[in-house]
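User: Hey, my collaborator sent me this sequence without any context and asked if I could get a structure. I don't really work with proteins. Can you help?
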Amino acid sequence: MANAVMAGDFQPMLVHDLRGKQAALFSLIRSASPATNGQLKEQIRSFQRLLNDDELLAPDVAEAKQLASRLVAALGNANDAAEAELEKAIQFAAAYQAPPCPRGPYYLGGISVMLAHEMPKRQFRKLLVLGFNDGAYPPPPSGNPFFLDSEVEAISSAIGLQLPSQAKQLDAALDLFSRQIGSASDQVIFLLSERDRGGSFLSASSSLPLISRLITGMDDPESLVVPLTHSEGTIWDRLVAWMPRPVVEPLQPLEVQAHYEFDLDLLSLRKKDDGTPRAQSPSRLEKLLISPLAWVLAELGAEHVSWQPEALDVMLRGSLAHEVFERLFPPGKDHPSDEVIEEKVPELLLERIRAIAPFLQTSAWAVERNTLEAEITKSAKHWSMVLKSLDAEIVGNEFWLTGTLFDHPVHGKADCLLRLPDGQPIVVDYKKSSSGTRRQRLQKGWDLQVDLYRRMTVRIDERSHEAVVRIGETLNGWSKQPAVAYHTLNDGNVLLNGIEVFDSTDVELVAGDIAANALALISARFEALKAGRLETNTTADAKFFQKAAALGTYALEDSPLITAFMRNDTAPSVTLPDGQDD
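Assistant: No problem. I've predicted the 3D structure and written it out in structure-token form, which is a compact way to encode the shape of the chain:
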């Protein structure tokens, strides 16, 4: 599940089995945020109606309904037509405190959990104090809201009235803490956080100097603090010191070979239920171009999973732009005007953000969200202008193509199919990038995406949808291979290949074979993999593929294993094509 979320799949698998109230409640939770106070109140009431009727959950459901009613009442005076007061609702809900849970039974020799404000009820051998940071042990005193401590002392001396003061609260808190740590007979371990959630440093509790006085010869209280990450052994070893750490001898680095031999067909690692090899996609084949080891790891499902904060990276920008374009330019419809584009793009983008990148809905991402909206709007206006100038019809969006490459099955999903007035089909792939590197790749003959699309077909049978049939008829109705094009959304360029003469200033014609070198290397890679030979990369490969082929080398960063099995060599691992020697 964690891997799916990190890959951008935010749809829980168990949702498919939800029915009735459960499905409706999930839809309500994932629905758009309310725009008005009236919508907010209605969503809260719907939440109450959809809660579970199970008798075992009756007390919890009753408590949830009661809190929801209080929340609606708190919003009662707000104008229903006004903007939803979400901040007020969140503050009210955040103030909720769960009722204390009853204590369970105590077990002799077991682990007991004691809260910071509780007095110890028995002796312990070992005591772990959690959260030993500034502001705890003892907590800061609240003091008297009306009198200073000096005034409280004067009142006590004059009339004998004992009022709360900061000094008294601090003394009581220190006395409680002293009793708590005094309940341990063998060992007391204090755990404190080095940083907060934002990465800022946190200091130790103010009682650290007092504790250091209990230790003979301890002049510097800070020397008691030992970072867990800077010590040897596991965390448990460092906390309890109950077992010796095993001695591990360091391994000597191995000499990486030019290739490794395996007694199996590496090209057929992934198979279908009937035993036939699974199809390769253009993205997998491009990875194979760069690094056979990275490709094998992907085939085995052993790719490195990078755990990092959510970000609006290139992949996510492209996915959002693709999905907006698919809905903004439907097949068989008139191309939208600038006014329609300006009206629909914000709505479509927010809809897709809710579906595949919900974190972008927060106010912290407002600048990036608005920038992406402006970029997509500009690209859509230019694309609409290009389509109108070409008098091109959109036949289909997001459709699958299948075929074979060197007798191995391949498939891919194209973004768009256009048909010119003379019937010429053009398979288009959208790219959320500029055209510079893409143009060089086509001119150097290293493309391995749209060129594969033109070699594949749409599979049609009696169960095929009408939209698929229309795409198949358009491709099959043309006597030659279809033309292919990249539409680079960042600069609006359209790079077209497969038409010898094309009179249009809105399209850039790239002549020649755009995939000759890529297919030659893929053929060699296929033969090596079939023979069980896995070739390794060299340190010169990144420069070669970037300069000679204009290819991205992200595959070399897919896993630390690729770097570990990379030969230190000034020559690339592949033979340079004629005329491309650096």
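In plain terms: The chain has a mean pLDDT of 88. You can pass these tokens on to your collaborator as they are.
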